[in-house]
Amino acid sequence: MTALAHVPTGQSTASSPPPAARSGRYRFLPYLLLLPGAAWLFLFFALPLLQLAAASLYDPTGSLATGYAMTWAFSNYPEALQAYWPQFSRSFLYAGIALVLALLMGYPLAYAIAQKAGRWKNLLLVCVVAPMFTSFLVRTLAWKTILSDNGWVVGLLRDIHLLGPDGRLLATPVAVILGLTYNFLPFLVLPLYASLERLDYRLLEAASDLYASPVQTFRKVTLPLSMPGLIAGTLLFFIPATGDYINAELLGTPNEYMIGNVIDSAFLVRLDYPQGAALSFLLMAAILAVVFVYLRKAGTDEVL
Amino acid sequence: MTAMGHDAPAGDLRLADLTKRFGAFTAVDDLSLTIPQGSFFALLGASGCGKTTTLRMIAGLEEPTSGQVLLGDRDIARLRPYKRPVNTVFQSYALFPHLDIAENVAFGLRRRGIRKVDDQVQRMLSLVQLDGYGRRRPAQLSGGQQQRVALARALINHPQVLLLDEPLGALDLKLRRQMQIELKRIQTEVGITFVHVTHDQEEAMTMADTVAVMNAGRIEQLGAPADIYEFPATAFVANFLGQSNLLAGEAAGSAGREVPVSAHGGRFSVPAGRARADRGPVYLGVRPEKLHLAGSADQVPSGHQHVDGVVTDASYVGVSTQYLLRTSWGSELSVFVANSGTHGQVPVGTRAVAYWDPRHAFLLRREPGEDDRTTPVLDEPVGASS
User: Fold this and answer.
1) How many domains does chain B fold into?
2) For the domain that residue B109 is a member of, what is the CATH number?
3) Whole-angstrom distance, CA of residue B77 vs CA of residue A249
């Protein structure tokens, strides 16, 4: 390219076409590379989503046998919400409590692995990820055994009178929340670890040198600098936890059912497609609203 | 900057029997020294000599194994760093990337609950010549500017002692020279005790009132830069602070005001006042710029002493020409001749004589068996073989 600078004046630079030709030939390359992914997304996400949106507006009196008529039945939404608002709010409550528990465990864990673990760092990371090597379902079933009425956990809690003689964990909100916390913890820990790992300990020394107590150092340096990981981690935890139905199904009773269980049964048991679709959209909208508010609050340019 | 007062009665900084061990390794070995209030003090040494560990113990970032750090009459050795009236300019600057320049500078004030910081921050930024940079982020500043922010961030707290850990190490040569002058100006202006850690002997000599040369966790010599340079206490100092030609010799006690020395078959003498040792194995030392070249022994002025040799190398470096002179016993002497225009260049291969005024020579203790040290020792204390 520098050769162009030496072309004598008067001679046309148009006689050196390579750069222009190159950008012409490869101009569409990025779009070409996007194509497979975009096609996949369109076929298996955008189209089904549209289908789902349409289904949520079908005539609710139809059935799989008789077929559904498109009647733009917007009333499906308020009716679904009215019928299932307890499960709806329960989903957010359980996921919220689980998130708080996961933060209390996950932040110190991620911090310790990132800043204090030294040569144990990789081993500890493997320990965080290892449960993911077995299926979600199997892990949740294992919790069923751990929390069962004649298991050692319940036995111990009864012995120290934290539980009454007939007290139990399984089939209670406690079990469901514990299950959610456990199952989604790695999604919180890993992004947090990634940003705490980048945290320069010399900044902590500098803060300490500049009269910041350990608590102030955490609030003014560690926390703000780990914000990107904290935001990513909480979202990766909260979104799937809110929509989850396995934990409530296996560790709870219908009294602990979350909105995921209702959607599951609407599609697979009651075969009420319009209601299932409407509930799915309501859940999506609610999560989007929560995330939007959260990002507006936490995701200022101070931290991202 | 007369408005800058001290918040608490300050005092001298004293290190008493300070020791730091990491496992079996002794980083700082029973160090004792006094740094007078308001002085510019440099800890000079090669990497791994314990100078940074010493600094970190003063800052509170490292806990001493034993000994005291006294500020005035108060032992602060076991205080947490945030309880000490001491601030640090870190080698990496360690500016907070999520805060703008003004908030970086205000950090220390805010942590102590001071709310009105704007005026002080403005004054600090103009002291380090960064007016108008308050709203920028550290990443938007050049290395030299970041260095000045780090300085302002520490100075705004009016510490009793300001610690500087190789603060100019990351800057290029020209900027470093500029910042040396700048730092010296600021130190004079604020009157705070500066303790400056560096491995750059020129930097230490340019800025500091007092230089302590450290080696292997101990202080080899402490004093004004000129005193240390003109009359080093040990062979390590003689070659760490500038270069020296050290000839291995034997002394047999002082004779009147002179100490006679025999070295490599020649007889020399050094004034008794410039002898660190006057008996047994010694080094006869002469700085390269104190050596002069002559064509033959009869051109040597009276009262001077000389060594014969052959010029083996001549490096023209502008202000001077640096010659290597191979002696009859095989060592090479370093001779710097100023290019003042009065002498022509001496070609490589010519026989020549290096001579010096005995008042410029010095005598150091030598471990038996150690040979000449005539090549410059740059970073590590390596005994040169000949």
Assistant:
1) 2
2) 3.40.50.300
3) 60
0.85 surpassed by complex ipTM: no
Task: Kindly list the residues from chain A whose CB atom is less than 8 angstroms away from the CB atom of residue B86.
Answer: 209
* CA of A216 vs chain B CAs: smallest distance (Å): 8
The domain that holds B273 is classified in CATH as 2.40.50.140
Residue B177 and residue B103 in one domain: yes
Across the beta sheet with B66-71, the strand order is B25-35, B13-22, B66-71, B74-75
Which chain B residues are Cβ-neighbours of A200 within 8 angstroms?
92, 94
Distance from CA of A101 to the nearest CA of B (A): 28
| CB pair distance less than 8 Å for B94 and A205 | yes
Q: How many domains does chain A have?
A: 2
Q: Among partner residues B80, B92, B108, which is closest to A210 by beta-carbon distance?
A: B108
Q: Are residues A32 and A92 in the same domain?
A: no
> pLDDT tens per residue, chain B (386 residues)?
333 444 444 589 999 999 999 999 999 999 999 999 999 999 999 988 999 999 999 999 999 999 999 998 899 999 999 999 999 999 999 999 999 999 999 999 999 999 999 999 999 999 888 999 999 999 999 988 999 999 999 999 999 999 999 988 878 888 888 888 888 998 998 889 999 999 998 899 989 999 999 999 999 999 999 999 999 999 999 988 888 999 999 998 888 899 999 999 889 999 999 999 989 999 999 999 999 999 888 999 999 999 999 999 999 988 999 999 999 888 899 999 998 887 788 899 999 999 999 999 999 999 887 888 765 544 333 333 33
B interface test, pick of A209, A213, A222 with most B CB neighbours within 10 Å = A209
Give the model confidence (pLDDT) of A250-263 as tens digits. Answer: 999 999 999 999 99
Which residue has tokens 């000389």? B306
Do B153 and B260 belong to one domain?
no
Report CB contact under 8 Å: B157, A209.
Answer: no
Cα–Cα distance for residue pair B201/B51, rounded to 1 Å:
13
Sheet holding B161-165, edge to edge: B86-89, B161-165, B193-198, B40-44, B210-215, B218-223
Residue A51 and residue A200 in one domain: no
Statement to judge: residues B214 and B105 lie in one domain = yes
Collect all residues with Cβ–Cβ distance below 8 Å to A271 and sequence separation of at least 6: A63, A64
| A83 and A51 in a common domain | no
Q: Return all residues near B148 (Cβ < 8 A) that are at least 6 apart.
A: B128, B129, B130, B179, B182
Whether residue A176 is contained in a domain is answered as yes
Q: Which domain holds residue A86?
A: 77-298
Of B254, B255, B344, B361, nearest in space to B307 by CA: B361
What is the domain extent for residue B34? 13-225
Chain A to chain B Cβ contacts (< 8 Å): 62
Average of per-residue pLDDT across A78-92: 94
Are the beta carbons of B82 and A303 separated by less than 8 Å?
no
Q: In chain A, which among 187-206 make CB contacts under 8 A with chain B?
A: 200, 202-203, 205-206
Do A41 and A149 fall into the same domain?
A: no
